[in-house]
Amino acid sequence: MTDSEKVTKYIEKHQRWHKQLAQLRRIFLTTELTEEIKWGAPNYTLNGKLVAGMAAFKNHYALWFHQGVFLKDPHQQLMNAQKGTTKAMRQWRFDANTPLPEAWVLEYLEEAVQNSKDGKEHKPERKKLVIPAELQTALQKHNELKTAYQELTPGKQREYADHISSAKQEATKQRRLDKIIPMIKSGVGLHDKYKNC
Questions:
Q1: Type and span of the H or E element at 115
Q2: What's the CATH number of domain 3-117, 1.20.1050.10, 3.90.1150.200, 3.40.190.10, 3.90.226.10?
Q3: The pTM is what?
Q4: Mind listing the pLDDT tens digit for each residue in 101-150?
Q5: Under a CB-based contact definition with an 8 Å cutoff, are residues 32 and 114 in contact?
């Protein structure tokens, strides 16, 4: 199935917002952006770089800009995508009572495209991975577990390390470790089951 077919299926699946999502898609397709599916939702890229996307939720649908922090936002529509935890992404929400101002949306998209061409990009600060003692001991004892852990992406490794580290009591750390060992061996991330919704 092509990305275009996947986007069509995504829009059809969200009956409450399918007309609005289709309208947003038409605006996206007037730009030079490439349509793709990432994280289960329509995203639009320029030369492989994420620029913008759209998604449907229960009470609203949204347009987001991956490097939205650089947008001028002349109409004061953008909000931080995750209430302060996201540095660069900005979101524009619409509900049943919010009209979709096509000219404004296109204006924001064109600025986002130009920003991408200009190389404006917020680079996330990467913290050094700190493996908690409990996990480190388990990795040293079991070569199969160590190999599986090393084959995980850095993000998945961090999820597991943080999951153990965030427990306050030793008993909780051990229970969490016992739970994640089979997951690590099978090569899945701690939160993978939520990422494909």
A1: helix 102-117
A2: 3.90.1150.200
A3: 0.66
A4: 999 999 999 999 999 999 999 887 777 888 999 999 999 999 999 999 99
A5: no
